[in-house]
From TrEMBL:
Domain called Putative glycogen debranching enzyme N-terminal: residue spans: 20-194
Record SUPFAM superfamilies: Six-hairpin glycosidases
Designated name of the protein: Amylo-alpha-1,6-glucosidase
InterPro entries, A to Z: 6-hairpin_glycosidase_sf (IPR008928), 6hp_glycosidase-like_sf (IPR012341), GDE_N_bis (IPR032856), MGH1-like_GH (IPR054491)
Gene3D superfamilies xrefs: 1.50.10.10
Highest rank taxon of the organism: Bacteria
Ranges for domain Mannosylglycerate hydrolase MGH1-like glycoside hydrolase: 324-584
GO biological processes: carbohydrate metabolic process
A Pfam family of this chain: GDE_N_bis
Amino acid sequence: MIERQLQPLLHELVGVVLAPTSALGDATGQIRPTGVQGVFHADARVLARAELRVDDRELEGLTRGDDGPHGARFVGLARWLGDPAPDPTVRVDRLRRATRNGLTEELRIVSTATVGVRATVSVDLGCDLAPIEMVKSGGAAAPLEAKTGQPDVLSWAADGITVTVTAPGAHVLASGERATAPRLTWPVELPPGGGDTVLRWQLSVEDPRAVVVGPAGEPEWSRPEVTADDRRLVRLLDRSLDDLRGLRLAETGAPGDVFLGAGVPWFLTLFGRDSLWAARMMLPLGTDLAAGTLRVLARRQGTRVDPATGESPGKILHELRGHEVALPANGLRLPPAYYGTVDATMLWVNLLHDAWRWGLPAEQIEPLLPHLEAALRWLGEHADPDGDGLVEYVDTTGHGLSNQGWKDSGDAVRYHDGSLATAPIVLAEVQGYAHEAAINGAALLDAFGRPGGDRWREHAADLARRFRDSFWVDGRYGPQPALALDRDKRPVDSLTSNIGHLLGTGLLTVDEEAQVARLLTTDTLAAGFGLRTMSTDDAGFSPLSYHCGSIWTHDTAIVLAGLARAGHRDAALGLAEGLLSAAEAFDYRMPELHGGDDRSLVNRPVPYPAACRPQAWAAAGAVLLLQAATGLYPNVPGGTVQLTPLAGVELGAVAVNGLRVAGTPVTVTVWLLYTSDAADD
């Protein structure tokens, strides 16, 4: 039997991150030479092994927990040492922290024994410098030989990357059979009556090829003080902001423009769609992150037609890497700068518009206006190759992404009967983004005295008419927008979460939005811990499919926010409860996605075993949920603020101090007023 090469599982691993560095190990703290365990820096695994032993024996794991936003603490026991009594008297705390260019570990050995303790502490290391795509596809690289030159120091080097381990006071074994599995050892002696000692080692990485770096300084956004009757909201926000702090990145050569890397471990780099959505969700905490994200992507905006990279004039980048990414099992081969995304360009326009409404200063917007005009030209000249007025995509290379919306797996676009649609594909939510971008772009052009506003309003109106004529089909629960149109403009008639992204884009009438809200609250979509990506009625549904039945955190948050702002309170509250219940089960570090199993069958969310965690737009979803709870919608250029809170009787009271509008701190309090026989907001 031929053994399959499978993507390694992540869901039980413990991660620490301070981008561009991340580390994944098991629940006892060991980093073993298997699967996706290791320390990663940018696009390479810079350490494939870090196994701690005492007297050449593994500790018995006791517990683990966070230690600050970028660290984890593991507690283990050495019960063969110390007093021969039922209570353990020798424990080891292993504190791991990610740094911008590596990792540190502190090993604290503590004895409360009445007898003296002598032991040898060792850490076995290994380095393979495997590229991230090799690890993701389940492949393996041969371990490299370590070099020694100074006491307490080990190093590895290949492909321009240099990895160095420094271990003060350690004896280094790195010759013979230990050349590819070097060992650090420390003798430890603790006196009778108790004592402790601390050992340290650190990893540092030099990678001149890296296209991303860790920015200096503190996060650009505010950290609001939140009190809420539902404490899950507070805990989710706190953990999410810690995770987002660790995902901050800048492009090499432009350290001042900060954006969010998409997620650990596979996507810790610039992703147009992910970085834009995350920055948009974070606007209630300030506009600096949005400004940095907009500028980074504007600098790499397409200028020419290049089928090999998917580039075209005005188009916004999908993904930036330091080298070509090849995944043979999927037939993918993506260039370092890849433009295979149909929606990032419209999302760039919409982020610029929303940042303007939240108070991004005019002097920061004006340099981006030529890029706005280029993005709109792309929408009018390149996004619709067949000229039918709808935005579509197709991979013409045969080795790019076959699907180029946010559901970009190869099997994501399915008919109700489970069969796959044939490209070119016209996605429903993309038409919503395009409509919104045309309206928003026109508003910006008008406000800054640039021509073309009327043209884009006409474009939006025409798009809305074409959508209404082409996308609505009959379904089990009445009329529904199709997921997409296929090559022959035939509706792909499955019921999916994509339709929720149409809310608030202006593409739908009020009555159509109400029907979409009804569809989103059916048990086929909403009976899990969040919003399913595909309904259980569709033949392609599977609760552990990446895009056809699973539940994505950011997807649920976006749709929840759209429902709340459109006034569909009960529907929004149902999704909020699912999201908060999932957060509680995942210790408030929300994964990229989880299983779409029914809550009546499984009383906690089922992990999706290869999900990124932490992940930028999943973590930023907590801020979007907080905004929906407070109902704060500013329009700084118009001089107005709308308050329509979701918080109330069901969600409870919420008070937030430290939101930002036009750089000014804002406090929002939603309280409950009780009468003798009723409770009202």
